Fold this protein.
Amino acid sequence: MDIAEVRDRAGPREFNAGDDMPEEYREAATRMIQFHANSEIMGAYLERPFVRQAPSLDRKLAFSAKVQDEIGHGQLLYRAAESLGVKTRDEMLDELANGEGKFLNCFHYPMDSWAETPMIAFFVDGAAMRRQATLKSSSWEPYAHAMDKVCFEEGFHVKHGEDILRELMNGSRKEQRMVQDAFDEWWPRIVQFFGPTDDDSTHHGFAEEVGLKQMTNDQLRSAFLNAYVPKAEQYGLEIPEYPRIEERDDGTYEVRESDLDWDEFFAIAKNDYEPGVGQIDGRARTQEAVEWVRGVLDEREQAAGTTAAAAD
Amino acid sequence: MAATADLAFEDLDDDEREAVRTLLFRLADDEYVTAERYTEWQVRAPTLESDLALANIAQDELGHARLWYDLLEDFGSEERELVWERPPEAWHHATLAELPYEEGGWADAVLRSYLYDVAEDLRLAAVEGSTYTRLRDRVETVENEEDYHLEHAQNWLERLVDADAGHDRVQAALDRLFPYALTLFAPADPEVEARIDELGLRDRTLSELRRDWLDRVVPYLESLGLDVPDPGDTDLPSAVGRDGEHTDHWNDLHEEFTRTYRDLDRQGTVRIMPDPDDT
């Protein structure tokens, strides 16, 4: 299939491993799905300490289940990415460990206290839900199919995140203040979640033409703000003054892009931003420490392969 | 009292209540602390599949701890007192559960799980016919999940010992963990243990359980080509846990998991899942 035909046929769940896709499509889809899979892993990396630090048994169980779900999503998405035949899962995990693998901006920042957990568990996951819901119509069928399960589970995560936010904002003055501080710090990052405005987005045009993506950054961000600014206010959070967000006549919101730190955003996009680098290396170190186990598994697999070959 | 009697909380005098509480705390604390340690492997296990499997087991154990703490609430305590405000020296898990893993210590994780899960299997079998009905009624739910845990641990052990690198690490873990595993059968207070047996709360004594455990664990580990320390020559570690004496690692762990509760000046917990009695 050539690119012209791909553009022509591009529709929801149109292509799968049975189709002979051009390299440009396979690479663009791999880049997108690998980014998504990496984000699941690095999000889980950031949230895992809060399984331990949750302040009740039920929250601990819910948090542990959530981290487990994220790893499951990573597994599912790496499989969807592998189906494009560009990279194996091991290659993608190695790239994540050595700092080449890219992932969401928000997961490059550290998270230190429980009061910060709704920033990811409610706002970032809520933003992710917006995007993921549209990806159920991606033209790469294995990706769209993975989104069915991911979106179903993410729905519970966002509800749980919202519940933590509600509990904290209904708590003591101290708790409310801690959440507001966390919100002031995280809000600009959350607004940047959808990336720069469409004019500045590097990969957008092609991905949309071939149906990998369904909505633009601007459309997604606008939809997110429409839903989440009122929710934040409903729980008693004050929206920080910057970045300036203006309400249009039709009730939708627009962000003053120049109020955001794009140098930081693009440093993150290149994996050059501390503490993101520390988080990448931290995960890499724990993976290096169990390399011996993967060695044992490989050795067994090879031995089994030899036996099978001898039996033939 | 006849061992076939059905005992409810209201039927018990203070001494008998102490016996039930001791038994329940041991079940709950072992599960809780074991799970706390397992969750350290989330996002750190050797493969995504093993990550999910151990996380799943941790989830089960936490759920079981929740079931047992819930029974302790019958005695007038709330979750805040049972978990979040209970001082470290009032916890009664075996010290096997609280030891930290070394970085990359996957052999420790699966071996510890095996040693613990065999003990758990025997211990649950011994309370299947418990005279304390609230306990007896919940055993089957827990047992159904525990089968998979043992299978998981054995499956991993068999794979690891197959390669030299794996075998040596499992052996090192066994040498380190074996004395601590024996703390699973240490009495909290011999007098209370006798009361537990007399009341028919369980149908095997701790020393019988220890013997049953050795009868299963030793031949199995030897069949994997491992040298099992002689239990007769093995001294218990200085901290056994059951009596409230713990290693320093426990204080650190306790500090970490109660951190948010303390930082937020919480004075209670919120239930977000249905009460076990309603499910």
Notes: Chain B touches chain A through 50 residues (CB under 8 Å).
